[in-house]
Write a structure and sequence with these properties.
The structure is a homodimer of 708-residue chains.
Chain A (H helix, E strand, L loop, with lengths): L3 H23 L6 H44 L11 H42 L3 H33 L7 H4 L1 H37 L11 H42 L3 H23 L8 H27 L3 H25 L4 H9 L4 H14 L1 H21 L5 H14 L2 H23 L4 H48 L12 H42 L2 H4 L6 H36 L4 H38 L16 H37 L1 H4 L1
Helix pairs in contact in A: 1-4, 1-8, 2-3, 2-6, 2-7, 2-19, 3-4, 3-6, 3-7, 3-15, 4-7, 4-8, 4-15, 6-7, 6-17, 6-19, 6-21, 7-8, 7-14, 7-15, 7-16, 7-19, 7-21, 8-9, 8-14, 8-15, 9-10, 10-13, 10-14, 10-16, 11-12, 11-20, 12-20, 12-21, 13-14, 13-16, 13-20, 14-16, 15-16, 16-20, ...
Chain lengths: 708, 708
Amino acid sequence: MDLSWLVWTAGLIAVLFALYLIRDVMRRDSGTPAMQDIAGRILEGAVAFLRRQYRTIAILAVVAAVAVGAVVGLLGGERGLEAYGITGIGIAWRTALAFLAGALCSGISGVIGMYISVKSNLRCAAAAAKGGLSEAVTVAIRGGAVSGFLIVALSLLGVAGIYYMYGGNPEVTPHLIIGFGFGASFVALFAQLGGGIYTKAADMGADLVGKVEAGIPEDDPRNAAVIADLVGDNVGDCAGRGADLFESTAAENIGAMILGITLYLATGNAAWVLFPLVVRAFGILASIVGIMFVRGKDNESPMNALNRGYFTAVGLSIIGIFIANQTIGGDLWLFGAGVIGILTSVAMVFITQYYTEFRYKPVQEIANASRTGAATNIVSGTAVGLETAMPTAITIGAALLLSYWMGGQTGIAGGAVFGTAAATMGMLMTCPFILAMDTFGPITDNANGVIEMAGVGGKVRKITDRLDAVGNTTKALTKGYALASAGLAAFLLFEAYLERVAFLRGETEMMAVDLSRIEVFVGGLLAVALVYFFSAVAIKAVGRTASKIIEEVRRQFKADPGILAGTSRPDYARAVDITAAAGLREMIFPGLLPVLSPIVLGVFLKLTGYDSAMAIAGFLMVGTIGGIMMAAYLNNSGGAWDNAKKYIETGEMLEKDGSPVLKHTVTHAATVVGDTVGDPFKDTAGPSIHVLIKLLSTITLVLAPLFI
Amino acid sequence: MDLSWLVWTAGLIAVLFALYLIRDVMRRDSGTPAMQDIAGRILEGAVAFLRRQYRTIAILAVVAAVAVGAVVGLLGGERGLEAYGITGIGIAWRTALAFLAGALCSGISGVIGMYISVKSNLRCAAAAAKGGLSEAVTVAIRGGAVSGFLIVALSLLGVAGIYYMYGGNPEVTPHLIIGFGFGASFVALFAQLGGGIYTKAADMGADLVGKVEAGIPEDDPRNAAVIADLVGDNVGDCAGRGADLFESTAAENIGAMILGITLYLATGNAAWVLFPLVVRAFGILASIVGIMFVRGKDNESPMNALNRGYFTAVGLSIIGIFIANQTIGGDLWLFGAGVIGILTSVAMVFITQYYTEFRYKPVQEIANASRTGAATNIVSGTAVGLETAMPTAITIGAALLLSYWMGGQTGIAGGAVFGTAAATMGMLMTCPFILAMDTFGPITDNANGVIEMAGVGGKVRKITDRLDAVGNTTKALTKGYALASAGLAAFLLFEAYLERVAFLRGETEMMAVDLSRIEVFVGGLLAVALVYFFSAVAIKAVGRTASKIIEEVRRQFKADPGILAGTSRPDYARAVDITAAAGLREMIFPGLLPVLSPIVLGVFLKLTGYDSAMAIAGFLMVGTIGGIMMAAYLNNSGGAWDNAKKYIETGEMLEKDGSPVLKHTVTHAATVVGDTVGDPFKDTAGPSIHVLIKLLSTITLVLAPLFI
C-alpha cells in the first residue's frame, strides 16, 4: 500500500500542531513590564545577530550553490545520469537549486527556533513568578516543541517536495536532491559555529569580567555583557541546534532514500524509496502525543514529567514503525532493525545521564577531585570525558552490527545496509520530541536570567533554578542523541556515497575502501587531524571573542563608575554588537575548513594519480569515527564539569563533617574553573563537530563526480 | 655485497662505546657526602620500585608467552609454515621463546636506563656545583647516551641473534621471530604505564601537598614525597622510555624484515631482508660521532651544543644510508625514501619546538591567556594541543606518500611499501642520539633536585635550572620523534600483518581492508574508543595514586610537627613504598586493556561469522590513526603548559608595564594549574599511547592465526 499521502498529512499536522502551540504559549501571561523590557532587549539582540549572521551565510551559500552546480554539471553529466536523459545543465541547476532550498530551509529552522524560544522564555518566567512550577514546565516544553515540530515538518515536506518536483523517479531523483542535504549542512555548520562561538564567548566573558573580576553575581544587570549572554543562549543553543537537527534529518533521509533504490530495484516495490519518509511521519504523530503527555506537577521533579512524555513517544514510535513496515510489505526483520534504532536512542540517554548528572559516580568524582583545586578538577573531568568514548562506541557499534544483521536476514539484495537505515530512521522518529527537550534548556536558562535581571528573587528564583538544572540535563541528553544519530547515520551515508560513485561510474558493484592503500590511510589520518584542528580553531575563536567582550565591559566599568554602583545602566546593545561582530568574523575560517579540506585533498590526490574517490571515502569514514569520539569527549566532559559545579551550588555536596560545601570555597572555585573550561567544549566545539561529520557526508556525496 | 657482519660489528662497537661512556662518567667527581646521600636514596627507591615492578611484569610475561605459544602453535602450524617443515610445536616454542627474549631484553633496557641515569645525575650535580655548565652538559648527555647505545645495541643484536638462531632463512625466519617484538612491546607497555603513573602521581602529590597546601618550595627536603618525585623521574622517564624505544626499534625492524621478504622473492637478493639491520648499524656509527660532538660551552645555551651533535648525526646518517643502499645494490630511489625518513624526524623536532617552547607564539598565547586565570589557561592549552594534530598528520602523511612513491619508482614488486620501510629505518638511524637527549632530561631534572635537597643554592641552582629547562625541551622533542616514528612505522606494520595473513592462508594476494564493511568500520570505531578509554584509565590512575601520597605526606606532617619545622626528617622510604604499591596496582588494568581488546573483539567477530582478520586490520589501522592524534594532543598540550609556566619563572614574560610577571601572581598560579594538568597528559597517557599503538601492531601480527 502506498503511504506517501501520510507524509504530506503528517507534515501538515505537525505545522498545525506547532501553530496550536504558538497560540497556546502566546496567550499566556507575559509578566511585568520590567520582565518584558528585558525579554525585548534579548529579542532585539538576537534578531540583530541573526540578521548579520544570515547575511554572511547567504552570500557564502549562493557562491557555494553556483560552485556546486558547476562542478556536478560539468563532471557528473556524462556518466550515470545521461542514461535517463538528464544533461549536465539539468544536473547543475537542479543540484544548485536543491542546495539553495536546503540552505533556505535550514536557515528558516534556525530563525523559528530562536524566535519562539525568546517569546517562550518570558512566559516561562512569568509562570514561575506566579509560583507555578507545573505551568512553567508546560510553557517551556511547548515553546520548545514549536521549533521541534516546525523543523521536522520543514525537513519532511522539503525533502518530499523537492523529490516530487524533480520527477519522483525512484531510480534517479534521489541523486538529484542530494544538494538539499548539502545546502542544509552548509548553513547548519555556520549557524552552529557562529551561534556557538557567540554564546560561549558571551558566557565566558560575562563570567570572567563579572563574577571573577568585579565580584558581582551571574546575570547581574550591572554587567554589560549579561544581555549578550542571554542572547547567546538563543542564537547558539536554539538557532544552532535547530539548523543542526534540520540538516541531520534531511541528510539522513536522503541517504536512506538512495539506499532504498537498491531495494526497489531488487523487489520492484517503489515504496522502499519513500519508506524513510513514512517512518518519520509516524514519528511526528508519536511525538505529538508525547508532548501532550508532559504536564509538570508542583511536587515532582520536572525531569519525571519529561521522561513520561519521552517514553510515551518511544512506545508509540515502535507501534508506528511496525505499521509502516507491515503496510509497505516489509519483512519483520526490518521492523526489528527500526526498534534497534529506537532503543539506541534510549541507551544513549541513559549513558549521557550517567556521566553528566551528579546523582552518579563520575560527576561526584570530579566534585571530590575539586577539593584539591582546579588542576585535579580538570584532570578528573578530562578523564571522565575521554571515558565516555567507550560506551558511546559500544552502543553505536552494537546497534550497527545488529541492525545490519537483521537487515541481512530479509534476504533482499541491499537489505543488510538498509537495516542500518531502518535503525537510523527509527532513531529519528522521536526527533521532534528531542528537539523540544533541547530547546527547553535555553528557554529555562533565559527565564532564569529574566527573573534575576528583573530583580524578582527568593522563592521564584528557586523555581527557575530548578528548571534551569533540568534544562542543563536535557541539553546534555539531546547531544548524546544527536551524536548517536550521527554515528548510526554515518554508515548509511557512506554506503550512499559508494552507491553514488558506482552509479556515476556506471558500475554495478560498489568499490572496496581499502585502508591498506596508502592514499586511503593518509586520507583517514588527515581527516582525524581535521577534527582536532577544527576543534582547536573553534575553541580558540571563543577565547578571542571573549577577550573582546571583557575589554568592552571593563571599558564601560571604567568610563562610568555609576554602573558598578547600580545608579546607571550599562550599554548592553554595544556589548551585544561587539560580540556579534567578533563572533561572526571568527566563524568563517572554521566553517570553510571542512568544506574545503576534502575538495583540496581529493583534487590533489586525483591529479597525482591516486584513487581519489577511494581516498575520500577513507577520509569520510575515519574522519567520522574520529569526530564521534572527539564530540563524545568534548560534550560529556563539558556536561560533567557543569554539573559538578551544580552539585555544590544545589547544596547536595557535603564536607567530611556532613555540612554542605559552600560557595566561594576552594572546592567551589575549582568547579567554576571546570565549568568555564567545559563551556566551549560542550557548546561550541562538540556540537559543531556533529555538523562537521554530517557535512563531510553530504559534501562528498554531492561532489563525488569531482573525485572520480 | 653482504653487510651482515656490519650488524654484529656495529652492535659490538655500540656496547664498547657505552662501556667507555660509563667509565668516563663514573670517574668524575661525585659531589659532597650530602649529595651522595640523596642520590643513594633515589637509587634505593628506584631499585626497590623496579624490582617490584619487574616481578609483576615477569609473571604476566610468562603467562602471556605460554598463551601466545599455545595459540600460534595450535592455529598457525597447519598453514603457511608447514611447507617449510615447521610443525605446530616448533612454531609454539620458537614464538614463546622469542617473546620471552624480547620481554627480557626490554626489561634489561629499562633497568640499564634507570641505573646509569641515577649514577649520572649525581655527577652532573657535582659538575654544576663546581660551577661548570659545560662539564655538566657533557656528563648529562654522556650519561644519557649510555642507555641510548646499550638499548639500541640490544635491539639490534637481539633481533639479529634470534634471526640466525632460528635458521636465518629469509623466507620463513621473520615469521618466527615476531614474538620478539610482541614480548618487547608487552613489557614496554607495563614499564611505561607503571613508571608513568608512578612519576606523575609522585610529582602531582608532592606539588599539591607541598607547594599548594604547606606552602614549601619544590624539592624541599621537608616534603616526604620529594624523594618519590625524584625516583619517579628515573623510573618513568628513563626506564619507561628505554623500554618503549627498545620495542620501537625491535618491532619496526622485524616488520621491515617481513616486507624485505617480498623484495627478496622478487629480486633473489637475500640482503633485502637484512637491509633494515644494516641501515641501523650505520645509524649507530653516525650517532657515536654525533655524541662526541656535544661539548657544552659556558657562555652558550646547552641546546646549541645538543643541536650541533644532532645535526652531525643526521648528516652522517644520510651518508650511511647511501652506502648501505649502494652496497646492497639498491635503487637510488630507496636511498631517497630513507632520506625522507631522516628529514621527517628533523621536521618533527621543529614542529614540537614551535608548539612547546616559549620563544614561539603558541606557548606565549597560553601564558597570555593565563592572565585571566586558570580556566583560560586550560582552554588555550587544550586548543594548542589539539592544533598540533594537523602539522603532525601532514608531516607523517607527506612522508608516507613520498616514500611510498619513491619506493614505487624502483619498479620492484613490493618496492612501494618497502619505500615506507626505508623511511622508517632512516628515521630510526638517529635513535641512539635521540635516546641520549631524552635521558638528558631526567638526569638534569634530578641533578636539580639533588642540588636543592643538599642545600646548595644560589649560582649553582641557576646552572641546574638552566639545564633543567633544556631537559624539558629535549624530553618534548623526543616525544615528537617517537610519535612520528610510530606513525611512519604503522604503515609498514600493517602491511606486515597483511602479508602474514596472506602467508598463513597460503594466498599470494594480500586482502583488501574494506572500511565499507560493517565489521571493519565497527572495529575501527572501537579501536579509537580504546585509545580514549585507555587514556582516561591512565590519567585516572595518576589521580588515584597521587591521592594516596597526599594522604601519607599529610599524615607525616601531622604525626611529627618537627618535619615542617625542619628539625626532623620525614620518612621518605615509606612515601616511596606507598607510591610504588599504588602505582603498580594501577598499572595492571590499563596494561591488559590493549592486550585483551583485539583478542576479545577478534574472537567474537570470528565466532559470529564476520571476517575477523579484516576487522582486526581495521581495528589496528584506525586505532593507530586515533592513537597518533591523541598522543600528539596529550604530549604537546602538556609540553606547552609546562613551558608557559617556565616562561614566567625564567622572568621572560612581561606585564604591560614592562616589568616581569612575578611568581605567586594570579597569572603564575594559572600556569601552575596548567602544568599540573599537563603532567599526566604528557608523561603518563601520551607516551603510553605510543607503546599502545605498537603493541596493537605486534599483538595482531603474532596472533594473526587467531583471527583467520
